[in-house]
Amino acid sequence: MRRRSTLTAARAIRGLFLSVPLALGVVIALAPGASGSAGTGRAAAVARADAALPGRGHSSVPGAARSLAGSWKLLPAAPVTTAPAGLVSVWTGHEMIIHGIVPGVTFAYRPAADTWARLRPGPKPLAGLEADDVAVWTGSRMLVMGLTNGSYNPVANTWRPIARLGTPDEAAVVAWTGRQAIIWGGVCCSGVSNGGAAYDPGTNTWRQLPNAPLQPRRSAAGTWTGRELIVAGGFTFDHNRLFRNAAAYNPATRTWRTIAPMPLGRWGATAVWDGNEVLVIGGYIGGGVTARNRLAVRGLAYNPAANRWRWLPKMAYPRSGFAAVWTGRQLLVWGGLTATHIPPPHGEAFDPATSRWTALPASPLRGRAEPVAVWTGRRMIVWGGSASGHRFTDGAAFIPAAGSWGEAIELPGLAALNKGDANVSSVSCASAGNCAAGGNYIDRHGHEQGFVASQRNGRWGKAIEVPGLGALNKGDVFVFEVSCGSAGNCAAGGPYTDRRGDQQGFVVIERNGRWGQAIEVPGLGALNTGEAHVSSVSCASAGNCAAGGGYTDRRGNGQGFVVVERNGRWGQAIEVPGLAALNTGGLADVSEVSCASAGNCSAGGDYTDRSFNEQGFVVSQRRGRWGKAIEVPGLGALNKGGNARVYSVSCASAGNCAAGGFYSDRSFNEQGFVVSQRNGVWHRALEVPGLGALNKGVEAEVFSVSCASAGSCAAGGGYADRHGTGQGFVAVERNGVWGRAIEVPGPGALNVGGGDGAVVNSVSCASAGNCSAGGGYTDRRGNGQGFVAVERHGVWGKAIEVPGLGALNTGGGAAVLEVSCAPAGGCAAGGYYTDHRGLNQGFVVSQTG
Questions:
Q1: How many CB atoms are closer than 10 A to CB 53?
Q2: Residue 739 neighbours by CB distance under 10 Å
Q3: Angle made by CA atoms 221, 225, 228, in degrees to the nearest 5
Q4: What's the rounded Cα separation, in Å, for the pair 54 and 463?
Q5: Adjacency order of strands within the sheet including 181-184
Q6: CA dist., res. 489 & res. 514, Å (int)
Q7: Mean pLDDT across the chain, nearest whole number?
Q8: What span, in angstroms and rounded, lies between the C-alpha atoms of 214 and 248?
């Protein structure tokens, strides 16, 4: 994808072996106990080096539950004089429409203007029946069914009657499938139902569903998964029998199937689909009439793929009659009544990725039952409800803090693979909640192996060994980088060891959520006579990627290559055009590639000139054809010490990129540089403005750059302050002009351990002025910790320790190795921590948009 975080911790690993002839082999990770630095230098980002962050001990940060970051805002007074009852609501995309039966009233709240509008009232409800209304949003109309049977068009502000479905049901399951509204079960007129029907708004007709394999019931939990209606639980009309069985209805085939029953019967619960599982929250458990007094403390999750239920952790306040919305990442719950009929003091949020409940901040509203609520994509709006016989006419909006980070978790499945040290070295997000991760672990034979893992709809799946690598690899293998062109369509690459003990480069592709078999890079074997590797992969769209790295030619010289995937097929690797002419010293490599669109990429790296000095180069691909590599303009004039390298490249659009790295000045101190490409032309490299003033030591380097749009980029890295302590910096380019580097706000308070200090390993920008950064720092106990920082509207906030990482990092060594932000917002980060045995493990953490 275009807007992705660039070089990760593997950058430093690649840098280590680029400094020696490739024939000596690729040194990928430092062994436990080896010397290294977390704060400055190329070793700062080493993926799994224990010594890359100092000290081992116990984290000072407890793993206590936090209140979800965010704020409440009271809504203005609604245009009603009498509090309506029998409320239903929908979100249209720009307004919350509320309809009440008594008195019949319809009105809308518009968040953009923070105003209410009184709408045309709906059809007169049926009289003399005990039933409810239910409502769904079709994309253009609100359908209200039950006592009120009408279709409301918000554009025209008009209602039209809809056909009645016999006798309306109370406490029925309702869902919108994208084409029809389905209603099933419920109670009316001294009886319960196991029947259902589907309403087609196009024809204004109902069609009875086939008989369900379930007994008649009311108050079942149900939700639409995108393919099926899941129905579970419920109870009889007289409360004397509580059900735990469940079924799924597929409208495409008009068939029911029996699914696994719940562990315990439950009624009155709320069900939502999180993209992977059905979450069933609240309600009552037990059997018989006493079930009313037994609120469910724990929820359940049903996995359709495995046909299995699992228990969820306890809520702080079990409740009934609450409002619930799904945000795309979390389930937000507010209101309701406890077992003693007292409203809980606050709402709660459940994150399926971490399987944890977190308290919401206290609301300005009085507690109540049966409020209506919607999720707008940015905020939860709640309105109305009742308590102690009083009906309310007020409401409020809860706005989760933009860019707030969830809790770090060990990457699922990685512990089962890992018999030694592991890390997540790379992450890439195509959209919020849809990412991929890659890295390494040690198998039972003591060999390094590569893994990949995918996140879908906010939930990380299990890490798996890269398919097919076992057949290729006879020694050690590493996943250096992953990149996603769209959700479920990614690529990864790195080196593996063949049967002769030589390293070769591989690539592997994920299509539609399934990882294929790893293959040796086509054509690389013909180029390579010794050691080879893939350093970087970048995908512009599904099936259109590029990769780059290094190999050893027939003369024993290190050379750089690129290879392109078009429409899902990898072409032949080629030597970077023009690089051999520059590389007269015989040691070159591609550090990173970045693709703005299919056939329009850039790459950068380093080579050795005739004086055996290291220099940095860039090369661009236009319309599928690679141009000639050139020395980074102006870098030679800066590089008086003869040691320069391009570490990171990022392209926002075709011909509009940025790159960063380091060079050695006349005092042989390393300094960080950036260079920009505009309309296909690379401009002159410059020392990062302001970095020289910050850097009082011998090393300052740019480890990562990321561009959201042409001329709007960010860079991050590390430098040494006057005490010789490593510090992390960020710098921002606006409208094509690089601003001054600043120490990342906040790490000064975190980074008090001295010694190796702090570093920014990765930056990633979702849009201009909206970026995230991550890295490592040393706490007061000398332990390595991981941090993240967020830029919002051009202003960097304070860095924070990754939430939840302290609880994992009992061995005292952790860092964020890469951050990736999707263009529409929402980021993920990965890295490593040290467990109580002193072994490194891999973690991931997600961020809201």
A1: 36
A2: 15
A3: 85
A4: 28
A5: 173-176, 181-184, 196-200, 205-208
A6: 8
A7: 87
A8: 10
pLDDT at 722 over 50: yes
d(CA 83, CA 684): 67
Residues 118 and 401: their CA atoms lie apart, in Å, by: 31
Q: How far apart are CA 777 and CA 308, in angstroms?
A: 42
Concatenated DSSP letters of 231-274: EE--B-TTS--B---EEEEETTTTEEEEEPPPSS-EES-EEEE-
Nearest to 333 by CA among 286, 290, 369, 289: 369
The answer on pLDDT for 32 being more than 60 is: no
* Three-class DSSP category at 620: strand
* DSSP string covering 343-394: --SS-EEEETTTTEEEEPPPPSSPP-BS-EEEE-SS-EEEE--EETTEE---
In 3D space, the residue among 707, 489, 702, 718 whose CA is nearest the CA of residue 591 turns out to be 702
DSSP-derived letter for residue 688 is P
Q: What tens digit of pLDDT does each residue of 412-451 get?
A: 999 999 999 999 999 999 998 899 999 999 999 999 999 9
**8 Å CB contact between 802 and 845:** yes
Buried b / exposed e along 362-400 (16+ C-beta atoms within 10 A): ebebebbbbbbbbbbeebbbbbbbbbeeebbebbbbbbb
Q: List all residues 6 or more positions away from 659 whose beta carbon is below 8 Å from its beta carbon.
A: 602, 604, 616, 618, 632, 646, 648, 649, 650, 674, 675, 677, 705
Structure tokens at 94: 């720009």
Chain-centroid distance of CA 26 in Å reads 31
Which residues does residue 395 pair with via DSSP β-bridges, in sequence order?
383
Residues 601-651 have pLDDT tens digits of 999 999 999 999 999 999 999 999 999 999 999 999 999 999 999 999 999
Residue 243 CB partners (closer than 8 Å, separation 6+):
214, 215, 217, 220, 233, 234, 235, 265, 267
User: Are the C-beta atoms of residues 764 and 706 closer than 8 Å to each other?
Assistant: yes
